[in-house]
Write a structure and sequence with these properties.
Length: 329
Amino acid sequence: MAVPVPDVRVLISYSHDGDAHRKTVLNLANRLRQAGIDAWIDQFEEHEPPESWPDWMRRELDRADFVLVVVTKVYLERFNRESEAGVGSGVRWEGALITAGLYHGRRYKARYLPVVLREEDRRLVPVPLNLTTSYVVGETGDGDLAPLLRVLRGSPNAVPVTLGSLPEDAARDWQVDLYLGNVREVWRRLDPDLRLALAQDWVLANSGHPEVRGHDRDELADALAEERAGHPLAGALLEGRVAVLREHYAAVNPASWGPVANPRRIGVDHAIVEMGSSSGGGSPSPERSLLMRKVGRAWLVANFRAAYVIPGWPPRQEEIPGALRNGGT
């Protein structure tokens, strides 16, 4: 069986401060590899040294998606060319390549991430790298790697919620889908209680049909009311209900129809949107109402008139008190 190729290639750049530090870097590399990151260091090549270490460095920089720079006092001195001549030439060469890569932007595809062993070592990060986040990995490379792994994997620590919509915009979008005959989208934009009530009403109306009679009515209604209903009978329900709605809104053309006034809010999660024609000059007059309900961040159609829908056998509707319908709370 073929071995899967890792998605992320990482080169670890470090100074040879001593045997203990080499072991720390080796431990870090192996922990990253255990986490699925293709981390690479020169120690993996020392059994068969390349003809030219500078060429090896350049090649690895080209291959790497990220370069982890393990910063110590010794690394900083060599990076800044402050050590004795001939000492730490590897870091000096890598430092020059990294600086050039940062300066030219696209010369290398790698992203350079400074890594330190202790919190207080953040001050040692070389100037070309100190504008980005640095990561503490522990004195022996045994620290918490979760923040670093999130960056290497492209996994954010927090995911933004979907931006919410305005009730009048959601009403207009639903109307457009209805006009275009986008049956599934029309159904998806309905409030769950309204979908359930429509499903229950359909089950009652077709209770004598052999394909309906063999199901538990509660289970069937719940299955039909799903946002993306996959039940074998869902097609008949959706096509039938949407056909009725399209007939009811036969004269509604989104090019000339839409919300005609600011929605009237009812509490924190309901709003009445008046829909009407905007053609013919003069002020548009309301012709139909849509009750909208906020579910999470989205506004959904909760009814085709200013009344609350209450699922049940049979489903029913409860008129919204006049004071609320007229803008009261």
